[in-house]
Amino acid sequence: MEERRQYPRIGISFPVECKTLPSKNFSYTVSKDLSLGGVRVFTTNAIPKGRVIKVNINLIDEVLNLKAKVIWCNKERIANRYSMGLLFVEATNTVKEKLFQFLNKIYS
User: Fold this and answer.
1) What is the pLDDT of residues 29-62, one digit of tens each?
2) Which CATH number applies to 10-107: 3.30.70.120, 3.40.50.300, 2.40.10.220, 3.65.10.10?
3) Is the dihedral of CA 98, 48, 32, 36 positive or negative?
């Protein structure tokens, strides 16, 4: 099966804060992989496909605040958690550039 990805993803684990809008409560999770277009995270609760959430991604020297749409959310077979694919929406060119620089550092 061919992947339909616009951007290559890099397997990296780092802390992520997620907030389902319009809620004001953050949940803390960890990433599985990251690309310029989105991030895959683990969560303890299923979040419906299409829901927009706020994510704060810690890039070591800076935190990026992004909105992301849930593209898919699947229950993991072994662990009592979900794996969730998020697509970044409304990301500014500045944020995209910072993300690009971060990914470039990791990949090189």
Assistant:
1) 999 999 999 999 999 889 999 999 999 998 878 8
2) 2.40.10.220
3) negative
